[in-house]
Amino acid sequence: MGHRYTALYGPSGIDVRETVRAIDKHRGLVKGIKAHGEVGGYSRWGVETLRLGTEASRQAGVPVYVHLGRLWSDAAGASIDPDTVVPEVVPLLAPGDILAHPFTKNPGAFVSREGRVHPLIFEAVKTGVHIDIGRGGHMSYRAARAVLDAGIMPFTVGGDVHGYTIGPLEDRAWDGGYFDETPSAAAPPAAIGGAKVYSLTQVLNELLALGIQLEDVVRMVTCNAAAMLGMTGEIGTLAPGAVADVTVLATDHGRFTLSDSLGEEITSSMRLRPEITVRAGKVSRPDSPLLGRSLSALFCHGADGRGDAARNIPRPARRTRGVSLEPDLAVQGRAPEPPVTRRSRPSRRS
After folding, report:
1. β-pair partners for 104
2. Residue 300 pairs with which residues in a beta bridge?
């Protein structure tokens, strides 16, 4: 409901003092502040919402997580160049803050209309700003390749899985900007962005297909995620005395096809599949129907998609650079290393 009404995201709805007070009261729960650096909002109130968000985050001592990429259409009578938003956003950020959606198909984010990563993104990473994938319903493999080829490696993997990505909206009112307030029934309902996303594991499989190595993907969803939340040594580690917070994933070998939000397809020779989860001593097995849909989203060719099936299909060659994830990294609870670009060339079909 909220995304349908742009004004709810404006500066008039932000109270910095009460935000800080709420964070102080719930330190164990609130780990950051979400704010938009988004084109449609920028056409209405510039970066004022983000400025207020960063003000609250500095006072509360938590990071600010910034959405990039268009959500709404420009305000009536306004015409914003999407590539002018990033230069207004980045100077407001500090080390430890997070920029989201590097692989989005939407304008006003990491990749310019010319297909190049904005120079200020590199500067932000150098100063200690982290990158979270935030896959959502707007994944573009073309944008992902541009970002990864430029040497930008995401720090964490946010699935951004929500109702808009797993089920249709009734009025399909997102064509100019996803959540315009004027409904339209001109087209049948469909999930935002075409291909649906149902689980974090599905996003991990996309990263593998894009050529990011398994050890880097694991780091993004374990020790790096813990560091982003200020919880290094508490979660994201197998260190003795830490809370058990473990997901066991199986690897399936075959030939799998994935699709982004624009319909572009890439193939992978490996797929991760959740087996069990252990959280604070409780063992759970994956039984959500959404996980079944997540796995079925990776179309398998010539194999049953489980275990050692289709081992005769060669895996793509991988080139390595930098330091690999040592087996004892999680056990020792060491701090995560800076992101290093390590990719193989994925096969793809357009």
Report:
1. 139
2. 256
Which residue did the predictor score with more confidence, 242 or 118? 118
**Whether the Cβ atoms of residue 35 and residue 93 lie closer than 8 Å to each other:** no
Which of 270, 244, 245 minimizes the C-alpha distance to 256? 270
Is the Cβ–Cβ distance between 290 and 331 less than 8 Å? no
How much is the pTM?
A: 0.80
Q: Assign 32 to helix, strand or coil.
A: coil
Residue 111, judged by CB atoms within 10 A of its CB (0-12, 13-18, 19+), counts as: buried
Contact 346, 211 (CB under 8 A): yes
Q: Which secondary-structure segment (H or E) carries 332?
A: helix 329-332
> Which token pair is 163?
């109702």
The C-alpha angle 205, 260, 193, rounded to 5 degrees, equals 130
Give the residue from 204, 236, 207, 239 showing the smallest Cα distance to 222: 236
Summarised one tens digit per residue, pLDDT across range 87-122 is 999 999 999 999 999 999 999 999 999 999 999 999
Residue with token string 């409780």: 282
Q: Within 10 Å of residue 181's Cβ, how many Cβ atoms?
A: 13
Residue 136 and residue 197 in contact, taking contact as beta carbons nearer than 8 Å? yes
Measured CA to CA, the distance from residue 254 to residue 87 in angstroms comes to 43
**Neighbour count for residue 14 (Cβ, 10 Å):** 18
**Joined tokens for residue 152:** 């930008």
| 211-227 core/surface letters (b: 16 or more CB in 10 A; e: else) | bbbbbbbbbbbbbbbbb
Tabulate helix, strand, coil % of the chain (nearest 5).
30, 20, 50
Task: Please give the helix or strand (H or E) that residue 100 lies within, else none.
Answer: strand 98-100
